[in-house]
Automatic annotation (TrEMBL):
Residues 6-146 form the Semialdehyde dehydrogenase NAD-binding domain. It comes from the Bacteria. This is N-acetyl-gamma-glutamyl-phosphate reductase. Pathway: Amino-acid biosynthesis; L-arginine biosynthesis; N(2)-acetyl-L-ornithine from L-glutamate: step 3/4. GO terms for cellular component: cytoplasm. NCBIfam families: argC. It holds the Pfam family Semialdhyde_dhC_1. One of its GO terms (molecular function) is N-acetyl-gamma-glutamyl-phosphate reductase activity. SMART domains: Semialdhyde_dh.
């Protein structure tokens, strides 16, 4: 095992943590040494997730019982507000460990913005400045040097990959963006919630957190940065759709400089020409969640709107893979100088 990089997964009993374990198990350079889940401590993973019945994994332990000397990297799949203190503690006792945080705790650059959106004081403001926003295709060079990677939320990943190059180029008006987003119920986590019960979510489509979804902050931060605008606001409305995984965002944009939808599409083709996981589909082909299910791929396209001067940008990904665990593993590969696609070459699962 000398050539293996030892990892721990915090929150391994959640959907995000479990998908990280699923992907990491077959990664040729990873040895999984620590799995935590306070509410399931002492249990084997197969008792919590039946799809791990075929493999041998470490038993789950509490965070307090985790041995940080046995890991080189930690993937954090904990709820927001719980990762900051743990990250700070790990860095104090084991400063060599790299942390790839899949929660929201280090995504926002401004601690005041974090408190505004999450209702909590940030308790690790001393290490916040070194956190790199882990949107792989946009911050690859910074991720390669980072000790702390703040992996984006699922909605921001789909939105930002499709809009940031356009905002940065000036081909769209970043102050006039309307985003309609839909995600499967796994995005709400594994905890018991009435609105995600089968009888509540099945055969229906429900908007939620209208005008106040926390992922708006990430979207505004990164598009604002790309467009050179402070205090940017976007219109973002998410919806819960009755499927286990998958996400699709439809963004309505106003074009600048006499640009056409074809110009926007070509810019995205050029921007991602060398990126292994981003596909700009053939002209006229519309993204569908079936194109990416279970994979680390993103499919996107641009079509002209009926309204002159406007275009529609559509993007889809698997919320648990490229929208979370897969992107975290992609960032891990970059942080350790490995092939970026290692452990992530699975094609989408269909049907």
């Amino acid at each position: 095992m000398a050539d293996k990089i030892r990892i721990g997964v915090l929150g391994a009993s959640g959907y995000t943590g479990a998908d990280l374990v699923r992907l990491a198990y077959t990664h040729p350079k990873i040895e999984i040494t620590t799995l935590t889940a306070n509410s399931h401590a002492g249990k084997p993973m197969k008792a919590v997730f039946k799809h791990f019945s075929h493999v041998t994994l470490p038993d789950l332990v509490t965070i307090d019982d985790a041995d940080w000397s046995s890991v080189d990297a930690v993937f954090c799949g904990l709820p927001h507000g719980t990762t900051q203190a743990i990250t700070k503690s790990i860095f104090q006792s084991h400063p060599h460990v790299k942390i790839l945080d899949m929660s929201a705790d280090f995504r926002l650059k401004d601690p005041a913005a974090y408190k505004e959106w999450y209702g909590l004081d940030h308790v690790a403001t001393d290490i916040q400045p070194e956190a790199v926003y882990g949107l792989t295709e946009l911050y690859r060079d910074d991720i390669a040097k980072a000790r702390l990677v703040a992996c984006p939320g699922c909605y921001p990943t789909a939105v930002l990959l499709s809009l940031v190059p356009l905002a940065k180029s000036g081909l769209i008006d970043a102050t006039d963006i309307v985003i309609d987003a839909k995600s499967g119920v796994s995005g709400a986590g594994r905890g018991l919630k009435e609105n995600t019960l089968f009888c509540e979510a099945g055969e229906g489509l429900s908007p939620y957190s209208v005008g106040k979804h926390r992922h708006s902050a990430e979207i505004e931060q990164e598009i604002g940065f790309a467009a050179g605008l402070d205090g940017l606001r976007v219109n973002f409305t998410p919806h819960l759709i009755p499927m286990s995984r998958g996400e699709l965002t439809t963004s309505y944009v106003r074009m600048n400089q006499g640009a056409s939808a074809a110009d926007l599409r070509q810019l995205l083709i050029d921007a991602y020409a060398s990126d292994p996981f981003v596909t700009v589909l053939d002209e006229g082909v519309l993204p569908q969640t079936q194109m990416v299910r279970g994979s680390n791929y993103v499919a996107m396209n641009v079509v002209p709107d009926r309204i002159p001067g406007r275009a529609i940008v559509i993007s889809t990904l698997d919320n648990l893979v490229k929208g979370s665990a897969g992107q975290a593993l992609q960032n891990f590969n970059i942080a350790y100088g490995l092939e970026e696609t290692m452990g992530l070459k699975q094609l989408p699962l269909f049907p």
